[in-house]
């Protein structure tokens, strides 16, 4: 296996958790992180227009490639659709963190809940699920919730308040769906606080995404 993984983040929240997953699943791989926390506020302000971010995202990916990365993981679902756009301009694979999660959701359920704390993340995740369902020739129903107040509490530094608001929204959505997809990697830690039998109702992207990275890097 080649030995450098670059991860592009739009929030520092995902840095340590993804690094820990890489250490667990890819212990011989060196991890390099790029964090641009100006991207999400820009997308919130412009209504999720990722075109404005594309050139910057490509530059980060190209810098990672020049720095010796063998593979890139895009850790942000809000800009996930940029991955397919920049891949043809790179010599190394770039992986969308939520891609395997979406595949698993479509393969395992017909009534899928999508939970987010950011509107900018919700729509790309729903489009991805619909695309995966079409590829699989399967009809799915998608219900969704955006816990905006939870995100505001996180920005204000109230992690406990964020977790409580989000947990309540997740449980309500799970009551009416087969499985709930967490649209943001940063939401995964809230699920870890649930009882084991309750956790089975939810899918999050970090571990599934890192397992896909491992699979790809083992083939390089």
How much helical structure, as a percent, in the residues?
40-55%
Largest sheet: 4 strands, parallel
Radius of gyration: 17 Å
> How many β strands by DSSP?
8
Q: Any low-confidence stretches, pLDDT <50, length ≥5?
A: none
What's the overall geometry?
Answer: globular
Keywords:
220 residues; alpha/beta; 11 helices; 8 strands; globular
Describe this structure in words.
The chain is an alpha/beta fold and 220 residues long. It contains eleven helices and eight strands. A four-stranded parallel β-sheet has the order 2-1-3-4, sandwiched between helices. A four-stranded parallel β-sheet has the order 6-5-7-8, sandwiched between helices. Helix 1 packs across helix 11, helix 5 crosses helix 6 and helix 7 packs antiparallel against helix 8. The protein is globular and about 45 Å long. It starts with a strand and ends with a helix. The mean pLDDT is 95.
Short note summarizing the structure:
The protein is 52% helix and 17% strand. It contains eleven helices and eight strands.
